[in-house]
Specification:
The protein contains 14 helices and 7 strands. It has 339 residues and is mainly alpha-helical. Strands 1-7-6 form a 3-stranded antiparallel beta sheet. The chain has a two-stranded antiparallel sheet with strand order 2-5.
Length: 339
């Protein structure tokens, strides 16, 4: 939380500068055909999170600037593979992929490169970890790299493509409505900012609906600290201390007793007074969207930064373009405003 708060002044200018670079590169290739957004977005996410969270500039390391996102992907893949549901080739998948931790040597080269990058470029944040939080230099560096890679880069790498996929399947003219709201709010204020996107109800609702149907981390685990009763709509379950619990968020957030037409993406679901009340039931960050992270509830410390950053990403897109055409995880066309 301390690192996020300190980076708030550079968050928006860093995001807009890197997004402009990303879009310029995509536009330059569109004349030759569709452009996949997966790699450009991951490069953007890696540079953005490195600069804003760690104060580390990938441009200072040619290897990291070029391959940093791939090194992070490989490191994350080995961590996540044991928990990824694979329904084919059972029980072989459970026996050979889900039953043991993977050896470190599979990712040691990638991890060491990333560690050295953070150690060299994030000296200020690491020093604060040592002086203010009494961590060793090694622990501060490992913790910062984990937050940077697993929490920030990993989460955004799932969320942004989900957001664009939702735009691709638009059948309600939502792009026009988003564009109108974004430009009205920006023109009436002081430009694109954390404050201005907080006034964009439809933009934020679109982000919330993306998180409702496609939470970046679908499974949450916790161990009961004491005996208690867990209530659902029509049942009560007795939980004993130390029992392991698992929450499957996509099932919870498709509850027809809470959400009307729960399997359908409804862009404006979270607008208005009724929509704001539904935020109490939006669980994507190990707690309700209406909740506040703390050391005791284990809710995502950066949950508000996640939703605001994704809203900024969406708002920036509709400041730059009237519309975008997306198919098969690729941009096929962008329509820029008439000068």
């Amino acid at each position: 939380m301390d690192t996020l708060k300190r980076s708030s002044t550079v968050w928006v200018p860093t995001l807009t500068t890197l997004l402009d670079t990303m879009w310029d590169n995509i536009e330059s290739k569109l004349a030759s055909g569709p452009v996949s957004y997966l790699v450009p977005i991951q490069k953007f996410i890696f540079a953005f999170t490195s600069l804003c969270i760690a104060g580390a500039d990938p441009a200072n390391s040619p290897d990291i600037a070029d391959k940093g996102y791939m090194r992070m992907d490989r490191w994350l893949a080995v961590q996540l593979l044991p928990s990824v549901p694979i329904t084919t080739f059972q029980p072989l998948v459970e026996i050979f992929l889900h039953s043991f931790p993977y050896p470190y040597f599979l990712v040691s080269r990638d991890y060491n490169k990333l560690y050295k990058f953070v150690e060299n470029e994030a000296k200020e944040v690491i020093s604060r970890g040592q002086t203010e939080f009494k961590l060793s230099k090694e622990d501060a560096t490992h913790n910062l790299l984990f937050i940077l890679g697993f929490n920030a880069f990993g989460g955004f790498s799932i969320l942004f493509p989900s957001l664009l996929s939702a735009l691709a399947s638009d059948k309600t003219g939502i792009q026009e409505k988003l564009r109108k709201e974004v430009r009205e709010k920006v023109e009436s204020g002081s430009g694109l900012s954390l404050r201005s996107v907080q006034e964009m109800d439809l933009v934020q609702s679109f982000v919330y609906e993306t998180l409702r149907l496609n939470p970046p981390v679908p499974l949450q685990y916790g161990r009961a600290r004491k005996d208690f009763e867990l209530s659902s709509h029509d049942s009560v379950f007795k939980i004993k201390k130390d029992e392991l619990l698992c929450g499957y968020q996509p099932l919870v957030m498709r509850d027809p007793k809470v959400f009307d037409d729960p399997e359908t993406f409804v862009p404006d679901r979270f607008t208005g007074e009724k929509g704001k009340e539904l935020l109490t039931y939006l669980y994507w960050s190990n707690g309700p969207q209406s909740g506040m992270p703390s050391g005791s509830n284990k809710q995502c410390a950066g949950k508000d930064y996640v939703t605001l950053t994704t809203s900024l990403f969406l708002a920036h897109m509709f400041l730059r373009y009237d519309s975008v055409t997306i198919a098969n995880a690729s941009f096929t066309a962008v329509d820029k405003p008439t000068p």
